[in-house]
């Protein structure tokens, strides 16, 4: 359990290999090897205060109890594990812990489905129709909207609720359309990657008409910031599609308006919560588009970056990597910024796949060739030693999203997640939550729990948590002066957290 703060004597270890080979292994040599591994892991070199060490002793006891359970949450599907995690004392500590920034979160999965139903759909002028594939679509409109193909006639929800005997049941059925989370057996509900991605995409289409309505758009983002803030996240890098946002009369706004609105709401939120550090936006486009659409998108992103140099962090692509086009296909478009001498940092999703050796599987190396600032997911990184080495040497951090990878069926038991290996060698990485509302989680704490208890096992400790939080600032897109400010604010909150949990 003891945390090794001194560099173990590697020389002793190797000397012994030469001289102790013929007898039973030397216990001192064994100890030295174990210390070397403990030193190499994420947080292994962190110097801890007395109070931090006392908190670590407490965490260690909690973890031992957690690991002795028959129903160990990280080994189970998150939908089944969620209630167990909620009762875990480790989880309640993690909720209180200042976690730094969330660097991989998407725009329309920040806020739980319940808020969408109870708040957004209860506003006036909300119409709904049911699609042929058992999903729903929404629109706010001052007049009866024109019918959608493959959808039932629009009904005004206010009228439908008035006619419905049990409106709670109706609300629950709407809620099921707005998240992947289910009380049913998750393996039966989502037997394959195709099924789960199909539902994932339907769910986005279902909530689209709600969240792109201007008044909801603002409140949704404000509510999202609130949920992360309450989970003790102080900074966000939000991947945003910047869709056309519409008004009640059907008029629409352009992407610059949408980016400006994010900026205005962020300013309002930080004015009201001075210890929240802020948000930066990573503009995204679906990777299903063709080369000419991508060229236009990159050109537009360069323009937006000029207009919002501090608020916009850079550019990325979203959508199912296995089905979209690989990065290499877009190489011309993605080289425009460097050719034109314009700064447009990239934050590519890459290696969110188990299709070893396919074109898509090359995305990791291509992302690095295109000078990506971080790697989204990097699930396949262990299959690419060259990419892994480059990512380490250049400090291109991997954004690990444990629950997302499990729900989208890349890994079943989170103890076997490839990031467990990355964490055992202190690879540059951060923990994030991708699409928390889709997965029935929220903020960052659930993913921190899975990483700390699942990847780390018994050997990760308070130093690992501290390192992961610090990484989220160090590998953020913030300029170094701002990073220093964020770092000292985080340190202040961390000291408070440690002293409040010092018994
Ligand atoms: C929705 O939330 C907003 C912002 O918190 C609040 O002002 C509004 O009254 C809520 N609307 C409903 C219908 O609950
Ligand atoms: C309405 O449905 C909900 C959910 O199924 C149930 O809990 C509740 O008792 C029902 N209310 C009435 C008045 O039947
Ligand atoms: C989606 O909502 C509609 C309308 O209430 C309902 O008929 C359908 O069963 C819901 N879908 C799911 C997956 O629950
Ligand atoms: C690319 O996609 C756009 C939009 O779908 C389409 O209008 C255009 O014709 C496509 N271009 C090529 C070269 O296929
Ligand atoms: C990546 O960086 C290298 C070295 O600075 C540079 O030569 C190259 O043009 C960059 N490529 C892109 C696409 O940004
Ligand atoms: Zn993502």
From TrEMBL:
Its main location: secreted. The keyword Secreted applies. It catalyses: adenosine + H2O + H(+) = inosine + NH4(+). InterPro entries: A_deaminase_dom, A_deaminase_N, ADGF, Ado/ade_deaminase, Metal_Hydrolase. One of its GO terms (biological process) is inosine biosynthetic process. It holds the Pfam family A_deaminase. It comes from the Eukaryota. Belongs to the metallo-dependent hydrolases superfamily. Adenosine and AMP deaminases family. ADGF subfamily. This is adenosine deaminase. It comes from Austrofundulus limnaeus (Annual killifish).
């Amino acid at each position: 359990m003891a945390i090794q703060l001194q560099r173990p004597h590697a020389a002793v270890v190797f000397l012994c290999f030469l001289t102790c080979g013929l007898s039973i292994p030397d216990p001192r040599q064994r100890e030295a090897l174990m210390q070397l591994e403990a030193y190499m892991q994420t947080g292994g070199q962190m110097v801890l205060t007395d109070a931090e060490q006392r908190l670590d002793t407490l965490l260690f006891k909690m973890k031992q109890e957690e690991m002795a359970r028959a129903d160990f949450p990280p080994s189970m599907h998150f939908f089944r594990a969620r209630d167990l995690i909620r009762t875990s004392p480790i989880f309640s500590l993690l909720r209180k812990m200042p976690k730094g920034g969330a660097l991989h979160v998407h725009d329309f999965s920040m806020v739980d489905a319940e808020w969408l139903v109870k708040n957004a759909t209860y506003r006036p002028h909300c119409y709904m129709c049911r699609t042929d594939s058992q999903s729903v679509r929404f629109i706010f409109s001052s007049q009866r909207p024109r019918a959608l193909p493959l959808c039932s006639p629009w009904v005004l929800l206010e009228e439908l609720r008035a006619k419905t005997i049990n409106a709670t049941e109706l609300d629950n059925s709407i809620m099921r359309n707005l998240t992947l989370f289910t009380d049913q057996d998750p393996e039966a509900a989502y037997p394959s990657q195709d099924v789960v991605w199909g539902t994932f995409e339907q769910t986005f289409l279902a909530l689209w008409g709600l969240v792109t309505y201007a008044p909801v758009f603002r409140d949704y983002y404000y509510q999202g910031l609130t949920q992360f803030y309450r989970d003790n996240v102080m900074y966000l890098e939000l991947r945003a599609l910047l869709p056309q946002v519409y008004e009640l009369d059907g008029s629409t706004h352009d992407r610059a308006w949408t980016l400006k609105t994010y900026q205005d709401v962020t300013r309002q939120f930080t004015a009201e919560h001075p210890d929240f550090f802020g948000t930066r936006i990573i503009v995204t486009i679906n990777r299903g588009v063709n080369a000419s659409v991508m060229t236009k998108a990159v050109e537009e992103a360069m323009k937006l970056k000029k207009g919002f140099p501090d608020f916009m962090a850079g550019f990325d692509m979203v959508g199912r990597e296995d089905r979209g086009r690989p990065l290499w296909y877009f190489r011309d478009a993605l080289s425009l910024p460097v050719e034109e001498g314009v700064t447009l940092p990239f934050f590519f999703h890459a290696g969110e796949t188990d299709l070893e050796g396919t074109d898509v599987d090359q995305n990791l190396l291509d992302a690095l060739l295109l000078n990506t600032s971080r790697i989204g997911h990097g699930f396949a990184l262990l299959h690419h030693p060259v990419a892994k080495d480059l990512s380490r040497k250049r400090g291109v951090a991997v954004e690990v999203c444990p629950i997302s990878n499990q729900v989208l069926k890349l890994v079943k038991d989170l103890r076997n997640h490839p990031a467990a290996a990355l964490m055992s060698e202190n690879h540059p990485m951060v923990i994030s939550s991708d699409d928390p509302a889709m997965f029935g989680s929220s903020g960052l704490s659930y993913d921190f729990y899975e990483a700390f208890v699942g990847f780390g096992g018994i050997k990760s400790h308070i130093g690992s948590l501290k390192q992961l939080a610090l990484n989220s600032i160090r590998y953020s897109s913030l300029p170094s002066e701002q990073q220093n400010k964020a770092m000292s604010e985080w340190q202040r909150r961390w000291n408070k957290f440690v002293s409040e949990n010092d018994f």
